[in-house]
Write a structure and sequence with these properties.
The structure holds two protein chains of two kinds.
Chain A lengths: L2 E3 L4 E5 L4 E3 L2 E3 L6 E6 L6 E5 L10 E2 L10 E3 L8 E8 L5 E3 L3 E6 L1
Parallel strand pairs in A: 2-11
Antiparallel strand pairs in A: 1-4, 3-8, 5-6, 5-9, 7-8, 9-10, 9-11
Chain B lengths: L4 E3 L2 E4 L5 E6 L6 E7 L6 E7 L2 E5 L6 E5 L5 E5 L8 E8 L9 E2 L3 E5 L1
Parallel strand pairs in B: 2-11
Antiparallel strand pairs in B: 1-3, 3-8, 4-5, 4-9, 5-6, 7-8, 9-10, 9-11
The chains are: A mainly beta, B mainly beta.
Chain lengths: ~110, ~110
């Protein structure tokens, strides 16, 4: 089965603290993984994808095939990082399979 | 670049009615996908179209249908609406359906069924 699991519905941290948003996937084959973010009153937008191996807004994510994980990390959270974060997997039809999302709240 | 545009932004219908939602992709994008997002969940894949042909279909009943036009815009139709169809319907476009092309999303159409 092709599936994405985000175990945390809500993650609350203080400004300056490290952040890790968890994502686990189930996929037979070579997975293609993404993180999408939705800020308040804005559209869903691509944050990063594993194939680019880039850092966007200080966030990074490493694909761990052994643990079937693609956790999103940032060493020092900022208030403007508060948003809904979705992990997504490219399905066999080219579609995206999303997790249920994690709401990140960064407190001052 | 206007990005992906969807219309209408909000829609209220009653059970049994039919609805048509519209999407214009980013200029140059030939692939359009539709997703349904109910409250508290991530988007769920409904359809993908590329070059006017259906390339993928999610686990939705036959009441859901879609098409893509020569200018790559797309419509999603839902017949015999049920209360459970109340959701945010998202359209996403990409250059093509495969490879490393990311999908870019519109703001969505909020559909409420009374």
């Amino acid at each position: 089965a092709q599936r994405v699991t985000q175990p945390e519905k809500l993650l609350s941290v203080f400004k300056g603290a490290p952040v890790e948003l968890k994502c686990n996937y189930s996929y037979s084959g070579s997975p293609e993984l993404f993180w999408y973010v939705q800020y308040s009153r804005q559209r869903l937008q691509l944050l990063l994808r594993h194939i680019s191996r880039e850092s966007i807004k200080g966030f990074t994510a490493d694909l761990n095939k052994g643990e079937t994980s693609f956790h999103l990390k940032k060493p020092f959270a900022q208030e403007e990082d508060s948003a809904m974060y979705y992990c997504a997997l490219r399905g066999s039809q080219g579609n995206l399979i999303f997790g249920k999302g994690t709401k990140l709240s960064v407190k001052p | 670049d206007a990005g992906v545009t969807q219309s209408p932004t909000h829609l209220i219908k009653t059970r049994g009615q039919q609805v048509t939602l519209r999407c214009s992709p980013i200029s140059g994008h030939k692939s359009v996908s539709w997703y349904q997002q109910v409250l508290g969940q991530g988007p769920q894949f409904i359809f993908q179209y590329y070059e006017k042909e259906e390339r993928g279909r999610g686990n939705f009943p036959d009441r859901f249908s879609a098409r893509q036009f020569p200018n790559y815009s797309s419509e999603l139709n839902v017949n015999a609406l049920l209360l459970g169809d109340s959701a945010l319907y998202l359209c996403a476009s990409s250059l093509d359906p495969g490879g490393n092309q990311p999908q870019h999303f519109g703001d969505g159409t909020r559909l409420s069924i009374l």
